[in-house]
Amino acid sequence: MMGLLQVTDLKKNFGKESAVRGLTFQLEQGKCVALLGPNGAGKTTTLRMLAGLLEPSSGEIIFGEHHSVTDYRKWLGYLPQNPTFYGWMSGQEYIRFAAGLSGMEQKEISKRTEAVLAKVGLQDAAKRRISGYSGGMKQRLGFAQALVHEPKLLILDEPVSALDPIGRREVINLLREIREETTVLFSTHVLHDAEEICDDILVMAKGRLAEQGSLSSLREKHRQPLVIVQVEREREALLWLDSLKSKPYVLQADIKADIAELTVHDLGSARDELMREATENRIPLVRFEAGSSSLEDMFVKVVSKQ
Amino acid sequence: MRSTWIFYRKEMLEMSRSFKLLWIPIVFAILGIMMPITSLFMPEILEMSGGVPPEMLSLYETPSSAMVMVQVLSQYSTMGVLILVLSCMNSVSGERYGGTAELIMVKPISSFAIIIAKWLAQCTQVFIAFGFGYIASFYYTYQMIGPLSWKSGLASFGLYGLWLILGITIALLFSTVLRGAGAAFVTLAILALLSLLNSLLPTWFSWSPARLTALASEVLVGNLLSVTSVVICCLITIGIIVFSLLSAARLLQKRVLPN
C-alpha cells in the first residue's frame, strides 16, 4: 500500500477561533476512510482545506508527489454537503461542463458523461433541467460530477446525512461500488454509515484527531467486557438488579429502571456468576447479553473525553 | 485557455436561457429609437398635450441628427448603464453566495480564467446590446432627421463602448466582494462620482474615464478631438479595467467562500 495523501499538522484559524488544531494523518490508496465526528468538530473545514477551497493557516498537504492544491485538483473529486447546480442546465449539460473544466478531451467527455449518468441512475433524467430534480437526484448528480473525470481521491462531505432512508440506501450502495474504483474520504456524524462501508475511520473532536485506525483494530482496542441484563418490572427483580452494582466482579454499573449495563472484570466468570444468581433467586429475565462494548460507546467516550 | 472558453460558453448559455441576450438589446433599441422619434414629433406631442401657445411651437426647431445621437448617448448614460450594471451585479456574487462556486473552484480552473470568461461574456452582452441599440437609433436618426457621418458614428461607438465596458468591469470587481445589490450600488456611485467630478472640474479631470462620454459626444457633433486627450483617456480606462480584472481574480481566489 502506498500513501496517497499525507497531511501534516494541519491547522485552521478563523480569527481567534481555531477550527482545526493540528491534524496529522495519511490516506492509503484504494481505502475507504470515514472522517467521523460530532457537529462542529471541524470535519467540513478539514475537507474544504483538502479540496483547496480554504487555505490552511499552517501545515502541509502532500498528494502523491504534488505539494500544492493547484497541482492535484485535477485528480480530486469533491462533493460538498449541499451541492448547488445551475438550475437552468440539464443534468447532462452540467456533467459535460464539469468534465470540460476538469480538462478532459472532447471525445472522452461524451463517453464518460453517459457512463457516469447511467452509474448514478440519472440516464432518464439527463435531458431535464436540474431545477426540476429532487433532493436525492441532486445528490446523485453531485456524485456524477465528482466522478466524471475518474479522480484518484473522492472527497465527500456528509453525503448521506440530508437524505431520506431510500436516498440514503441508494447512496450507500453507490459508495460501495465507487470504493472498488477509487480512494474515498467522506465525513459523517453517523457512526453506523462509517461501519457499513469503511475500512478505516478517523475520529475528530474539537478540531483534533481523537482516534484513528481500521475498524477492526478500533473494535479490538475498545473492547470492554459488558453484560446487559434486563428483567421484568417486578419489585423483587428490580431489587436484585440494583444489588448487582455492589458485586466484586462489577467494575462499573449503569442501571436504568429494568436494564443494567455492567462493565465487568472478566466476562466468563461474571456471566456464570450472574446466571447462577438469577436462577437461584428465580429472577424473571427478559434479556441477557454478554459481549463487548460497541463502537458507538467508543465514539461517545472518545468524543466526550476531549 | 480551454477552460476559459468552456466557462465563457456556459455564461453565454446562461444569458440566453435567462433571455438577457434578448431583452437587454431590445430595451437598448427602444431607448435609442425613442430619441429621433420624439425629436421629430415634439411639436405634435406638445400640441396634443395642449396648453402650449402656438408661438412657442413655431419656435421649436428639430435638433440636428448629431444632436439627436448625443441625446441617445445621454439616455444610455443613465438607463443603459443602470440596466447593464444590474444585469451583471450577480455574476460572481450569485455563484459565491448561491453555492455553485463551491463546485467550480475545486476544478482545475484558475480564478483568473473564471473572471476573464465572465468579463468576456459581459463584454459580449454590452457589444450586442449597445451595438443593436446604437445601429437602430443611428438608422432611425439617419432616416427621419438627416445624414450622419459613418466615421464619427463609429468613433463615438468605440469611445462610448469603452465607458460601458469600464462600468461592467467595476461591477464585476465589486461582485466578487459584495452581494449583488451592494455591488450595483457601489458601481453606480463610482460611475456617478466620476461623471460628476468630470463635469464640475473638467480641466482637473481631463484624464478621467468619464471624459469618454464627452469625447463620444464631441466626435458626433464633428468637433476635432485632441489625439493626446483621447489616447490618455483610453489608456487610463484600459489600465483601470486590467487592474480591476486582476484584483477581481485575486479576490475570488483569496476570499473564503461563504458556507
UniProtKB/TrEMBL annotation, chain B:
One GO CC term on file: plasma membrane
MF GO annotations: ABC-type transporter activity
Ion transport as UniProt keyword: no
Keyword terms of this UniProt record: Membrane, Transmembrane, Transmembrane helix
Pfam families referenced in this protein's UniProt entry, alphabetically: ABC2_membrane_2
TM region positions: 21-46, 66-86, 119-142, 154-174, 181-201, 221-246
Protein name: ABC transporter permease
Organism of derivation: Paenibacillus glacialis
Phylogenetic classification of the source organism: Bacteria, Bacillati, Bacillota, Bacilli, Bacillales
